[in-house]
Inverse folding.
């Protein structure tokens, strides 16, 4: 640690991905902590206007992971918080290939830079409960030691498995560095803006016919708290980060005051098409499998080691609902598209019944 820094708190912290919502909030929170001397935000692109105001106390450097090597050494960095991950492909920005380049190759470059940084003593990695996959063979509850029963179909989950593998290798080479891997459940809350929150903000929510997945969330503010504690305290290891308890998909939709639209289509591809017809976001196979099979994780290790209990899944979801009580108003065009999609779903059901008879 930097000479003179309080015990446990690093003097110089690098946060990657500060051009995005999570990275900007984490960097701002660390910069407000008087125990931390400097916070350096890394992102190849500048933050948008809605995030720029958060970063007044953060030194911003516009570089990618490939250029981090000299930076970590020259600045005497004590800790790195790696948040620059993409959870869904964006066709306008390179699709799946660009997503893997940023997630996997970017993390490899970061770890290579950390390998050559002599002062580095702490590495905090954002991971995801998507590492467990989602299938009909899943156990009722995943612990941190549970292996996926099947190779996940989604690109993000496969990236997470690769990333965690590279982090394990880094830990073996740099045993002097405290490595913390945080497997977050999907973020939710009044301030969260994610694919999942946009999904539940729709007046008509696509679901798959005959399925009712068990879901678990983590409140965005609790995620910030865990990330902050991971930097200023020592918590080596891998931790599930989620709110206790579960909500079924149907319960969540009813609590949100929305209308479920069941679609009979293998893999929920029809539901994803319905969401696109309504003009809401993009849904990859990771989200599709989650909505079909669900996922629940055990958080006792986090609560014991951090002495912190996130608010429950239901409490986190209710906070999201209070912030979105106004709902989303359907335009005439979106309503017409929704009606056509629902009618098409009904035709699919009738056709399937005729084929079986």
């Amino acid at each position: 640690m930097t000479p003179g820094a309080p015990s446990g708190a690093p003097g110089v912290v690098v946060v990657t991905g500060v051009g995005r919502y999570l990275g900007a909030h984490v960097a701002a929170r660390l910069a407000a902590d008087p125990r931390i001397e400097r916070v350096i935000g890394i992102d190849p692109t500048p933050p948008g206007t809605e995030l720029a105001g958060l970063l007044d106390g953060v030194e911003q450097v516009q570089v990618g992971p490939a250029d981090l090597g000299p930076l970590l050494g020259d600045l005497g960095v004590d800790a790195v918080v790696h948040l620059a991950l993409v959870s869904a492909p964006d066709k306008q920005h390179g699709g799946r290939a660009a997503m893997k380049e940023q997630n996997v190759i970017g993390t490899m470059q970061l770890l290579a830079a950390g390998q050559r940084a002599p002062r580095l003593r702490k590495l905090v990695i954002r991971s995801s409960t998507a590492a467990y996959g989602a299938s009909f063979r899943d156990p009722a509850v995943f612990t941190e030691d549970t292996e996926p029963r099947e190779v996940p179909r989604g690109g993000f989950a496969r990236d997470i498995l690769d990333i965690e593998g590279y982090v394990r290798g880094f830990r073996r080479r740099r045993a002097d560095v405290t490595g913390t891997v945080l497997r977050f459940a999907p973020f939710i809350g009044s301030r969260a803006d994610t694919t999942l929150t946009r999904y539940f903000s729709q007046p008509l929510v696509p679901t798959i016919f005959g399925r009712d997945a068990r879901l678990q969330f983590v409140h965005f503010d609790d995620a910030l708290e865990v990330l902050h504690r991971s930097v200023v305290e020592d918590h080596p290891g891998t931790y599930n980060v989620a709110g206790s308890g579960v909500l079924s998909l149907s319960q969540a939709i009813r609590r949100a005051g929305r209308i479920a639209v069941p679609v009979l289509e293998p893999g929920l591809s029809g539901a994803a098409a319905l969401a696109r017809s309504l003009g809401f976001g993009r849904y990859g196979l990771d989200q599709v499998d989650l909505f079909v099979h669900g996922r629940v994780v055990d958080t006792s290790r986090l609560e014991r080691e951090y002495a912190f209990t996130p608010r429950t899944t239901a409490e986190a979801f209710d906070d999201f609902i209070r912030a979105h009580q106004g709902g989303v108003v359907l335009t005439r065009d979106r309503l017409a598209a929704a009606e056509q999609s629902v009618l098409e779903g009904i035709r699919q059901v009738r056709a399937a019944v005729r084929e079986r008879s």
User: Anything to note?
Assistant: The two ends are 71 Å apart (CA to CA). The longest strand covers residues 122-128. The chain is about 40% helix and 15% strand.
